[in-house]
Specification:
Strand order of the largest sheet: 1-2-3
Strand content: 25-35%
Helix content: 25-40%
Order of helices and strands: EEEHH
Number of helices: 2
Length: 88
């Protein structure tokens, strides 16, 4: 039996997940039962990603493994920036 999905917005168990598209982007809602739902956000944050170093992609709360991706992207960014630095 798999572990229940927990809503990152409110901390309650999730009964179902709605994935929908709007303006070419993917978004998510988590349903808890009794008609209650939480908007969880987009799969990927386009604006936040544009303002970061090119190796960093900011993902939404539903993206499994995003933390590892952030660490890997940060390491790549540090290496790229370090290689561009001029020696004193």
């Amino acid at each position: 039996m798999s572990a229940p999905v927990i809503c990152p917005r409110c901390g309650r168990a999730v009964k179902s997940i709605q994935k929908f598209r709007s303006n070419g982007r993917t978004y998510f809602r988590f349903y808890h039962g009794n008609g209650e739902k939480c908007y969880v956000g987009p799969r990927e944050y386009v604006y936040a990603t544009r303002t970061q170093w090119r190796t960093l992609v900011i993902m939404g709360a539903v993206e499994v493994g995003r933390e590892e991706s952030y660490i890997e992207g940060s390491i790549r960014a540090i290496r790229e920036i370090s290689s561009m630095a001029t020696p004193e």
